[in-house]
């Protein structure tokens, strides 16, 4: 018996509304099935990701280099596939909260972002170091794969600025360079401090010009249920990849383990 069957067999036979959220979600997924998921995702993404060159103050990293090199692998460093953004007034005043995995223990008092990149000494950074990077805000439609979405307003540092500043994500130990995509590790892994929730992100999406290490929601510091002190906001992915309360961030060529992929979701859920 595989692990999923085993879990199912030992689940209490409660009415649906009394089941823990995680069990409901898994059952929903199991009944929903791979076929529905595989066909639903591309349609949603097609409607959702629109070319939007005028989007709000989003930096276009290395755009000049990109314009002179259209043959780069995949769409690394691309600035063309931006998600649609909205005026700030359209953002929900009360952003919905969903998912508490990895948040059930207190935020460590001595919280720091732990960073590991092969070939470099592991190091950590305070929230002030992240706030010292240029601040970017985005108002966009956050989408949960369970079927709800909401226009939300997030602020923080671009993940690409962070990688540039700390020369991360590359084998050479240099800042990521669009002419040297072979130098990039394939994945970024993120985990909560207690390791109760964890995701893997393809480097292409990590470097996307709307991907943010977020510390603000609606112009205020993020509160605990939304992922204080620092969370990932990755608009090209469904909610599941937007890890709240980042503890550790690392790079690898192997797919980092991923909480919902282990429970049957597509690993990439997005772009
Ligand atoms: N640490 C952690 N991050 C998480 C989750 C979680 O359970 N734990 N759930 C994910 C899911 S499924 C969604 S939809 C979003 C919800 O973010 P929100 O609570 O800010 O709306 O967080 C994502 N990040
Ligand atoms: Mo979600």
Automatic annotation (TrEMBL):
Which domain of life does this protein belong to? Bacteria
Q: Which residues form the Oxidoreductase molybdopterin-binding domain?
A: 106-260
Q: Does the keyword Cell inner membrane apply?
A: no
Q: Which residues cross the membrane?
A: 32-49
Family matches, as InterPro entries: OxRdtase_Mopterin-bd_dom, OxRdtase_Mopterin-bd_sf
**Which SUPFAM superfamilies does the protein's record reference?**
Oxidoreductase molybdopterin-binding domain
Q: Which UniProt keywords apply?
A: Membrane, Transmembrane, Transmembrane helix
Which protein are we looking at?
Molybdopterin-dependent oxidoreductase
**Provenance organism:** Spirosoma terrae
């Amino acid at each position: 018996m595989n692990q999923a069957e085993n879990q199912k067999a030992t689940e209490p036979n409660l009415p649906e509304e009394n089941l823990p959220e995680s069990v409901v979600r898994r059952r929903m997924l199991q009944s929903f099935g791979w076929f529905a998921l595989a066909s639903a995702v591309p349609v949603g993404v097609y409607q959702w990701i629109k070319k939007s060159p005028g989007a709000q103050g989003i930096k276009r990293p290395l755009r000049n280099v990109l314009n002179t090199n259209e043959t780069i692998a995949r769409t690394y460093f691309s600035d063309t596939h931006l998600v649609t953004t909205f005026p700030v007034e359209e953002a929900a005043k009360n952003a919905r909260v969903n998912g508490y995995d990895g948040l059930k223990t207190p935020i460590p008092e001595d919280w720091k972002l732990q960073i590991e990149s092969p070939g470099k000494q592991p190091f950590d950074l305070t929230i002030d170091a992240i706030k010292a990077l240029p601040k970017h805000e985005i108002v966009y439609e956050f989408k949960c794969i369970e079927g709800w979405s909401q226009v939300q307003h997030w602020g923080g540092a671009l993940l690409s600025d962070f990688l540039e500043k700390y020369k991360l994500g590359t084998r050479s130990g240099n800042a990521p360079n669009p002419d040297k995509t072979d130098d990039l590790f394939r994945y970024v892994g993120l985990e909560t401090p207690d390791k109760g929730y964890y995701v893997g992100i393809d480097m292409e999406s990590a470097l996307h010009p709307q991907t943010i290490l977020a510390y603000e929601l609606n112009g205020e510091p993020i509160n605990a249920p939304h992922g204080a002190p620092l969370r990932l906001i990755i608009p090209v992915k469904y909610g599941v990849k937007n890890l709240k309360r980042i503890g550790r961030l690392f790079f690898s060529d192997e797919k980092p383990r991923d909480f919902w992929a282990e429970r049957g979701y597509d690993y990439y859920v997005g772009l």
